[in-house]
């Protein structure tokens, strides 16, 4: 596992692209594990702050309960369809997985919420190559570094 700043230090170009893709739109898709091990997807918002990637939840929402029981998660950034006619100009899609670490928040007089820091295990950027007959996939894994695949 790595904090965002550690990943960024190991793979700065990939981190920059993934951050740009994540910040392009507000809503992301978070996958957590239900009590029975089945997947659950939920909408969420993220924030890059102080060298970490953060996301939150309303108090005791299903995704927060899932993460408190089993901190494994996957997060898919917002995406748009590749441009018609030249899909190689598409910026691609970004996703990552890891473990959520709940961080206590100071009392603010409001209803409590959950705040999670993402400890990153894997980061992936997928895009269409040029010519548009293949995909390019950059994959970073904690402890393994960065690899690029052509499919």
Descriptive terms for the model:
3 helices; alpha+beta; Pnp Oxidase, Chain A; six-stranded antiparallel β-barrel; 46% strand; 151 residues; 8 strands; single chain
Task: Produce the secondary structure layout.
Blueprint: H1 4-10, H2 12-23, E1 27-33, E2 39-49, E3 52-58, H3 62-69, E4 72-76, E5 93-102, E6 113-128, E7 135-141, E8 145-150
Antiparallel strand pairs: 1-2, 1-4, 2-3, 3-6, 4-5, 5-6, 6-7, 7-8
Helix pairs in contact: 1-2
Protein name: Pyridoxamine 5'-phosphate oxidase
InterPro entries: F420H2_bilvrd_red/Heme_oxyg, Pyridox_Oxase_N, Split_barrel_FMN-bd
Keywords: Oxidoreductase
What do these coordinates show?
There is one protein chain. By secondary structure, the protein is of the alpha+beta class. The protein has one domain (4-150): Electron Transport, Fmn-binding Protein, Chain A (Pnp Oxidase, Chain A, Roll). It is built from three helices and eight strands. It has helices spanning 4-10, 12-23, 62-69; strands spanning 27-33, 39-49, 52-58, 72-76, 93-102, 113-128, 135-141, 145-150. The chain has a six-stranded antiparallel barrel. A hairpin with a 2-residue loop joins strand 2 (39-49) and strand 3. Helix 1 crosses helix 2. It is globular. The model has no long low-confidence stretch (mean pLDDT 95). Residues 18-110 form the Pyridoxamine 5'-phosphate oxidase N-terminal domain. GO terms for molecular function: coenzyme F420 binding; oxidoreductase activity, acting on the CH-CH group of donors. This is Pyridoxamine 5'-phosphate oxidase.
């Amino acid at each position: 596992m790595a904090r965002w700043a550690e990943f960024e230090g190991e793979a700065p170009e990939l981190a920059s692209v993934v951050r740009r893709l994540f910040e392009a739109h507000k809503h992301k898709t978070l996958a957590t594990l239900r009590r029975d091990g089945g997947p659950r997807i939920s909408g969420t918002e993220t924030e890059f702050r102080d060298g970490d990637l953060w996301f939150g939840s309303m108090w005791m929402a299903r995704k927060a309960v899932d993460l408190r029981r089993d901190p494994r998660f996957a997060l898919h950034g917002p995406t748009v369809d590749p441009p018609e006619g030249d899909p190689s100009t598409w910026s691609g899609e970004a996703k990552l997985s890891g473990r959520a670490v709940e961080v206590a928040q100071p009392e603010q007089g409001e209803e409590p919420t959950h705040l999670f820091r993402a400890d990153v295990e894997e980061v992936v950027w997928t895009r269409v190559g040029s010519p548009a007959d293949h995909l390019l996939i950059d994959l970073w894994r904690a402890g393994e570094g960065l690899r690029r695949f052509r499919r």
